[in-house]
Design goal:
The chain has 102 residues and is mainly β. Helices cover 0% and strands 28% of the residues. The protein has strands at 27-30, 44-48, 58-59, 62-63, 65-67, 72-76, 82-85, 95-98. Strands 1-2-5-6-7-8 form a 6-stranded antiparallel beta sheet, with no helix packed on it. Strands 3-4 form a two-stranded antiparallel sheet. The radius of gyration is 18 Å and the shape is globular. The termini are far apart.
């Protein structure tokens, strides 16, 4: 008889606090020291993204930033990670970089 081993893995969820805190600054420079970074073009200067009433746009409790040159956004995902992408609020569609790939 063959002896089978069953491995049960549990999904790991992190609790994320979405209490809004205003951003520390209006401008951010996102850069990398890794010359082999695939989506290097999505890095650069990001400014605080304001809505039509000049209030900061908020995504999952954090301010959203925009790079006007690349027309991309930097925002917080529902999992608490930072994402740079073309589709605001999405973690897969249009996402170019994530603060945690796993």
């Amino acid at each position: 008889r063959e002896h089978l081993t069953t491995v049960v893995t549990m999904a790991q969820y992190n609790e994320v606090d979405f209490t809004f805190e205003y951003a520390c600054c209006d401008c951010l420079l996102v850069k990398s020291s890794n010359p082999d970074l695939e989506n290097r073009a999505s890095l650069g200067s990001f400014i605080l993204y304001l809505d039509i009433e000049c209030e900061p746009l908020i995504c999952y409790g954090a301010c959203v930033f925009q790079n006007k040159e690349t027309k991309s956004y930097m925002y917080r995902s529902k999992y608490g990670n930072w994402v740079i992408g073309k589709s605001l609020g999405k973690i897969k569609k249009g996402a170019q970089l994530r603060s945690h790939e796993n």
